[in-house]
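User: Assemble these into one structure.

Assistant: Restating your components, then the assembled model:
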Amino acid sequence: MRVVIAEDSVLLREGLERLLSESGLEVVGSCETAEDLLLKVRSYVPDVAIVDIRLPPTHNDEGLRAALEIRARHPSVGVLVLSQYVEVGLAMKLLADSAEGAGYLLKDRISDVKDFIGAVRRVGNGGSAIDPIIVATLLSKRRSNDPLVELTPREREVLELMAEGRSNQGIADTLVITLRAVEKYVSSVFGKLGLPSSGSDSRRVLAVLLYLRS
Amino acid sequence: MASVALAPPADTGLIRAPPKPLLLVAIALAGGAAAGFAVVLALTSDHVREPEVQAALIVWVILAYVLAGVIAWWRRPESRLGPLMIAAGFGTFVSMLGWSNNELLRTIGQTLDFLPPILFLHVFLAYPSGRLERPSERVIVAAAYLTGIGLGVVRMLLGGFGPDSVFKLTTEPGVADVVLRVQLVTSAALALAGVGVFVVRRRGTGRPLRRSLALLHDSFALALVMIAVLAMRAALGISGFETIQRITFFVVGLAPLAFLVGLLQARLARSAVGDLLVELRADPAPSDLRDALARALRDPSLRLAYWLPQFRSWADLDGRAMELPSEDSGRATTLIDRDGERVAALLHDPALRDERELLDAVGAAAAIALENGRLHAELRARLEELKGSRARIVDAGQNERRRLERNLHDGAQQRLVALSLELSLLEEQLGADSHASARLGQARREIATSLEELRDVARGIHPAVVSGHGLAVALEQLAARAPVPVELNVELVGRLPERLEVAAFYLVSESLANVGKHANATSATVEVARTNGQVVVEVIDNGIGGADTERGSGLRGLADRVEALDGRLRIWSPKGGGTRLRAEIPCAS
């Protein structure tokens, strides 16, 4: 899997390069500005671009804008945005109308090497990776007549993992239950929330996030 | 009443004492005598046709100028116009000595034949101060004296006044006739130049405020035109000279009459000061003072300037600095002092200079009210200054906070993440079973906790999401984390100025926190919209209301934030009726 990195902190950029190479991914380019990132993505067309949300020169929204541009122009390139803070509004802005090949994680996550590499691979393969904090925030959001109270604790766990972008197999591995059991929980959750059961994992992510956000 | 001193007007110099009444009476009597003598001269003359008509016209002109001059000198001692008009009256008389049968008197009269039109021109151009203010006017008048009197003397020396004339050196009637024609053409040209001066003046200052003044100017111009016509006809030898001459004399005599009417109206205008005093007793708001003064002065274009000593500047009522108009701007300035301190300036139509007493009386009557206006202007100026410095302090504080947050983000936070990653890679190398690996894991969790705490600190210092991604994005997180269900309606196109976004963010953040702490509400609505040059932020809950707007609950701090941006915060919180908080912040689009 081929990766491009845009991160303006040298320390982190080098750490990321090492982490990814040691995990068997190929870092085909790394840079520190949004402009360079777009150039590298255009020339290398990697499987995934890892983008710091705050990039020079102003450190405002350059990273996010570059990420959105890659998603619009190069649909085959997955984009994983890293940030020191994760916000619901930014997640929704990044996903817009598709969670396919999109990820948004707190920067801290890179030190959970196995999880992080899993997320990079997922996004590179057209899946999604949404930070647990985003999911937790949305799940804790106050609603009148909240249908979430209907869920059993296990169903809630399955919903969380679904929203993070994990596949059924991923959920089964995490919760140490059978794939069959996961499928049962998933359809039960969809039934209780009144959501139509949808196709791919990333479609499922968007549907769940939009549901939780409203 | 406090003593009121008026600064001497800049344009008229020192105020002179009026002449002694005895002198004025003597002048009036002398004028009457001169008129009587002119009548005798006309009736006894052996070379005046229709002497009765000529005598009547001369009496009309002499009396008009001498008497109007006496009154002008009495009422307007600071103007030289009075003496000048008196001189014009007697000058007319002197030129009429030409009617005399006595050779000496006749020669003097004929030599000074052009004196009256020159004096009329002088009077007209010197109105109202009695001085020739502009170089062009001085040139015209000087040229008139030179050709009128100088060439008159030349004609006399050439024997131009007939065989009996005294003081002649030679007898060259042909040459003298040429000189006469030169005189006639020149005086016609100078009279028309005088008309030109009036046209230019009118263009500069506009039509005078009062009908009587307009009439006066028109009578001046008409008299000058008539003089020019008269001179041209005489120069060309066209018949009908006498009719034109009579009409001219009549018109010339109208000018002082128009002047007297103007003086009378000025007296009447002063009754407006009485009305003004009544109005001022009702203590009008400073903003109404201008209108009251404009009515009293009958000058709708009147403006007031207040002197702010601390700022060493003139200012309008709202404390905005302004300049007094320059002398040639077509506006006149009257300074008003009170107890020796400069208070204000009236910026008025220059035509009001003719009504010095009215200006003085109005200024004196309104001095206290103007002092109030001055204090008002000063207060506003200080308030503006304060607002400006408060906005600068807010900006400086915000910039400093943003810098701090940025340093945290680029420094400690990045380093801790990198450190955590380093430990994690080390952990991988050591393998899962080792004791060291467990301790590394423990250290990583410590770092994660530190990062979390650091994030909270950074967020508290400055909401980076707001500056980075705008209010709408940042509010979504607030709504998601709010203690009650929140309906969020943000109607904004594009970004707002950053300090406004940050203020609105804190406003919503604090308000939603208050809803959780005090309101006992089950839902809330947040609305942000931009309308009519302002941003409106509303946070409404359905709780128990009764929010204490005076103390606690951070409401004072929120109001400070909003007011620092020149906005205002209002809160409705009736007991049992929910709480509605509305901030309106000006925002130029």
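Residues 291-386 of chain B form one domain.
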